[in-house]
Every structure is written in structure tokens, then in C-alpha cells.
Amino acid sequence: xxxxxxxxxxxxxxxxxxxxxxxxxxxxxxxxxxxxxxxxxxxxxxxxxxxxxxxxxxxxxxxxxxxxxxxxxxxxxxxxxxxxxxxxxxxxxxxxxxxxxxxxxxxxxxxxxxxxxxxxxxxxxxxxxxxxxxxxxxxxxxxxxxxxxxxxxxxxxxxxxxxxxxxxxxxxxxxxxxxxxxxxxxxxxxxxxxxxxxxxxxxxxxxxxxxxxxxxxxxxxxxxxxxxxxxxxxxxxxxxxxxxxxxxxxxxxxxxxxxxxxxxxxxxxxxxxxxxxxxxxxxxxxx
Amino acid sequence: xxxxxxxxxxxxxxxxxxxxxxxxxxxxxxxxxxxxxxxxxxxxxxxxxxxxxxxxxxxxxxxxxxxxxxxxxxxxxxxxxxxxxxxxxxxxxxxxxxxxxxxxxxxxxxxxxxxxxxxxxxxxxxxxxxxxxxxxxxxxxxxxxxxxxxxxxxxxxxxxxxxxxxxxxxxxxxxxxxxxxxxxxxxxxxxxxxxxxxxxxxxxxxxxxxxxxxxxxxxxxxxxxxxxxxxxxxxxxxxxxxxxxxxxxxxxxxxxxxxxxxxxxxxxxxxxxxxxxxxxxxxxxxx
Lengths: 287, 287
Description:
alpha/beta; TIM Barrel; 9 strands
């Protein structure tokens, strides 16, 4: 079924979803047991395995790396802090290149400690991106700005809408696009227009999925399994495909509940839900 | 000091901030003890006191009512539910009229139970607003749409940005504006332009204040006291005044912490913070 839409080829597992699963190699093995061969690791997993060994595991298993998590966190209270962030982003670019990742996911950072100047933080992000971009281009690594839900504007990412992120992409030019995570943008009244715009300009680099639970009891670690919340995932995927992106849906679920369950159980549920509630033709069953 | 900007005449207390304070009359007495004569009650306080008695307390003390909380919650799974919401909104309009409130604050509601159709919910809101508007105009009650933080899109309000709310205001016409709460909109990259737009069209009906804490540990009840978080309140107020709104700043703090403290202590802190960190000329001290 290689390449067929809706086949497991189009399902990617972000390691944050199965962080209870152990090492880089162990998580890869778990994915392979379930027929999943696309992954999105975090830097700490890669660092613990060693970059060469991680790249070897990727290559020898023919894995697709839909994203490397993560670069970003540009704003800092002083020049030294901002320089350190640039250096660290260069290392992340090297890693993404070694892993042949589709993109380096950029969680850009929020307000510098002690600051109330969100416009200033946004300027630091633009400056930082401009500074690392030539290096990323040379390495052949695409940078995917990830707008984060406005809940995280202060402490994680001051890019909070797709429009704002695409405006920055347009300023920066070639090699910069967006990672569109349903959790962060599902509420946006401007969503459809901005997804279409991103598609027109070839700026969709990743599509992340999970669900929004009602109620959401923890702002950080209560994301839902696909189908358990209120996001119309089939409609969302139709929008993404109408915009020309047919790459994998990457499952990224930060959740205390799911991280307390065995990895094989989590992956079984994901495979089932991916087939039944995430495909563009799935029926939007009642929440 | 009547009418002077920054005087206590320009400070209003939303009853949610001091709900531990007892009855309508008791909360009013507490405000008056602190020199505060502008209030924004909730419907349950008014209902418990009786509308006539609440209106008598307002009139006999020369209180300004900066808003009546709240109308809205239009979306419902069936016609009967939507009709019930319309009827309930008419009663809220009657109350706002009796209290001579500056506006009826509209928290419009989220997804109907069982729905994943946020566009449909938004259409229900537009329909509901159009239906109650003639009644509100006849009663001389202005309706203030309150865009709520996207965190609440699913369960409280599917209006989530100022732009989206103002677009609806423009469609509805005379008698509809917005309540701008710093907590809900501080993160919006389009904030300044939309506040200016609202001002140009005379659509700013209320300005609510509190602060955004880092970290925010509870999505519902962890709003911060002004000065304890990362919102640049002086800059925000300058934006509001530049747009032509010089009405009171209304303090609305949903917080388990502050609601555990005696009302007089809370009001003392508010009066001090209002003077020192909320005025347009205050220095944006480090967070």
C-alpha cells in the first residue's frame, strides 16, 4: 500500500506521544512493530542515542523523518543569550540534516524573562530566523515555524496564528514554511484562508494531529487522542490536502493520561483512530 | 477628583473578582468603603437580591454599572435550546436596562454539545445576536461582544479575536460593540490595528483588566492581579485611549488565590495596583 493516502505510510509518530517508550531505538522498534515507518524525534532522544547512531537507525530501517523537534527559543534578555540560541539552532540544523528530516520544527520562544514586550520578542524571533536561515539553506534543511496556541504566547512561542507565521515566512523567503498542528490552530476563524495561502506558496511542511478535549484540565499535558475531542479532523485534512499537502499526519499528543499507558497500547489506538477518524473521507461523527 | 483619569472614578469592580464578598449589597458596600463607585455585577447576584432591589441600590448610591454579566450562550443542539437562549437573553437585556448598565456583556457560547462544527456554532451566534438586537435597541441596552481567549473556543465562546468580533459588529450594525479584556486578547498580533478600528467605529464598550501569569496553572481560575503578570497594561491602556475610550477599567479576576482572601484585602490591592501599574503613563516595570 506504499504511498496510498490513508495507509500507514502516511502516519508519523512524534516521540513526545510515546516518551514512556524508552530510547530512540526502542521507540523506533515499537513503531515498526505496528507498521509505522515515519517518525519525528526530539533532540534529547537523538542526543542520548548519539547523532550517528540515530541516523544509522533511520537509514537502515528506511524511516521517514517528518520533522526534528525542535529549534527556536530565540528571545533572551541579553545578547549572550540570543547568541547562544543561534548556536544551538545551528546544531539542531546539523542534526536535522543528518537525520534527513523533512523539516526542523521551530518553536520560537516567548517573552524573555522579565519582559512584557511581546512585540520585542517577535522581533527577536524574526532576527534569529533571518540569522540561521542561510545556514539551514546550505544544509538543505527546511525550517517549519510552528504557530502555537495563544495559551503559550508568554512562555513558549510568540507566533500564535498561521497568518502571523506566514507573514514571517514571506519576509524570510525560500526554505521557511509552517508546521500546522490542529491543536494550536483549530479555533482560528481565519484558518481556511491561511491554510490555502500556505498551500499556494508551498509553505506547508508538516501536519500534526491530536484532539482538543472538553474540558481541557491541564494546559500542557491534556491533549486528546484523535476522535476523543471536538476537532473536525477529516475536514481539517481535506483543507490541508486541498492546499496541496499530502505528507504524513504526525501524531503529537502531550498527555499525562496517554503517557501512563504502555506504548504498544497507545500505538494500537493510534493506528485504529488514524484509519477511522483522521482520513479526509471519514465521517465527522458526533463528539 | 470626579472624572479625572486615573482617579477611582475610573475603576470598576466586576463581581467575579470578589465573589467571596457575599450579596449584591454587601459587595457594593465593600466597594464604597474603598472609594469605588463603579461595578459590574453578574446575573446571579442580581437575581438573588431581586432586580428592583439591585436597581435601587445602584440608583441610591449613584453607582455606575460598567456592564451586566452576562448574556450570550446562543449555540445549542436543537431549536428549543436556541429559543430558550433567546428568551434568556431578553431577560438579561431587561436587567441591564433596569440597572442602567453601560452594556450587556455577551459571552456568546462555544460548540453545542456533541458538535465539532465551529463554523456552525459561529453562525448560531450571528443568528442569535441578530434576533435579540431589535429588543436591545428598544430597551436602550448596548450589547458588548466579548472575544474570549482561544482556550475557551470549544466551551465558552467561539468568538476568539477582536477582528472576528468586530466583523460581526459591522454586520449587525448600531448598538453592538466589544468588551475588550486584556486577558483574552493581549497575545493577538493584530491587536493594535483592531483596537484602533473599534475606536474609529465607536465600538469599544468596556475595558476589562487583570494579568496573565507565567506559568498559568489553571485554565479557568488562575488570572493574575494587575502587575503580577506579563501584560503591558500601561501600553494597553494607551492603545484604548488612543482609540477614544476613556471609560473605567473594570477589574475581572477569576482566581482561586484571590478568591481565598478577604474582600477588603483584595480591594486594597486593586486600588494600589490601579494607581501604580494600570495608568497609561505608568512605567512598564519588569515582570
